[in-house]
Amino acid sequence: MSRLADILRRLVDLNGPLDVGQFMALCAAHRGAGYYHRRETIGLAGDFVTAPEISQTFGELLGLALAAFWQQAHPGQPIALVELGPGRGTLMADLWRATAHVPSFHRAIRAVHLVEISSSLRQLQRRALRGLPLVFHEDVAELP
Q1: Whole-angstrom distance, CA of residue 82 vs CA of residue 85
Q2: What was the pLDDT predicted at 38?
Q3: What residues of the chain score a pLDDT lower than 70?
């Protein structure tokens, strides 16, 4: 039996049945035994590939649309970017690169909040997004 199965069995023995939300949270995020903590999950060596890993187009278009919206609706206002489950940081890197020609947009960004539970992915994100004002969170509830 796997370590996660042992953990789940112990919890059920102690507290009774788990609801689906508790079960899924443990399976995905349990430190050391959850899916996102035990191995590489994204990319060709992982279990799935996301759009930003295939092409930079999505991140670039998203960045340009965001910068255009900001220029029209909130010029000069400070910005806090948030990405949930940023993987390797590819989407944010593409967004940042595409908006480099809008320096006022870059200057307005006070923080790039990344909600990420995997310490190994956080390391990849730090490398991919070096120089950006990164703030890491393990849960959306921690966001300002």
Answers
A1: 10
A2: 67
A3: 1, 38-39
Three-state SS at 140: helix
What are the extents of the domains in the chain?
A: 1-38, 52-142
Pairs from 74-79 (Cβ < 8 Å, separation ≥ 24): 75/104, 76/104, 76/108, 77/108, 78/108, 78/109, 78/110, 79/105, 79/108, 79/109, 79/110
Please name the fold of domain 52-142: Rossmann fold (3.40.50)
**Rounded-to-integer distance, Cα 105 and Cα 76, Å:** 8
Quote the CA–CA distance of 118 and 73 in Å, as a whole number: 35
Count Cα atoms within 13 angstroms, Cβ side, for 11.
14
